[in-house]
Amino acid sequence: MSKAKPKKTKQTMDEKLNTLRAGVLGSNDGILTVVGVLFSVAAATTNQFTIFIAGLSDLLACAFSMASGEYASVSTQKDTEKAVVEKERRLLETNFDDEVAAVKRHYMTLGVTEATAVAIAKDLLAKQPLETVVSIKYDIKLGHYMNPWDAAFSSLFSAAAGGVFPLIAMTFLPDAMKWPGTILAVSLSVALTGYLSAVLGKGNVKTAVIRNILVGIITMFIHYYIGTLF
């Protein structure tokens, strides 16, 4: 008799957004770090192989660095969330009345009368005590923790993909188009990541796009200037 496969828990919107966030940030970093190295090296030498290897090496280093950073960061967040859940599990056993009071206060801040808030709190804690307190006190959905592997792989691939744009432009465009083509490719790429970050963060799209383009231009200028010193 075959065993039933465990049902896979569906990701929450927060989990999906966290993975997308890691991807957008990874892509942005991949673009800027790779173009920085490319401009520094290309300003110092005209050897195409040297420029390409420098850019490719930085692309790989950036991708793995971003992935490891995301993994460490999200793992810490996940461990913190699990620790909070365990703390609340103990409090429900030792300080149940305080947990009821916390849930009651939450509903009273929403405009519910004290009597109704007490009734709601007791009803919820009788049915789903742990789920209720971690949701109300910490905005954590029980059993749904940020996945460090999802964030790491999202950052890894997006950083590598982002770095490909300036690398291809600087390596394969004709000499006459190499510099303006790379600048254009970077500007368009960081404008896109700025737009996506604003949409995901519910921020001002115009400000985010302009800010990213300015950061990209400044990054290219600084690294080009450093390259001309050697």
Automatic annotation (TrEMBL):
InterPro entries: Ccc1_fam. It is found in: Endomembrane system. Its main location: membrane. The keyword Transmembrane helix applies. It is a multi-pass membrane protein. It comes from the Bacteria. The chain crosses the membrane at residues 20-43, 49-68, 151-173, 179-201, 208-226. Keywords: Membrane, Transmembrane, Transmembrane helix. The keyword Transmembrane applies. This is VIT family protein. It comes from Lactiplantibacillus daowaiensis. The lineage of its organism: Bacteria, Bacillati, Bacillota, Bacilli, Lactobacillales.
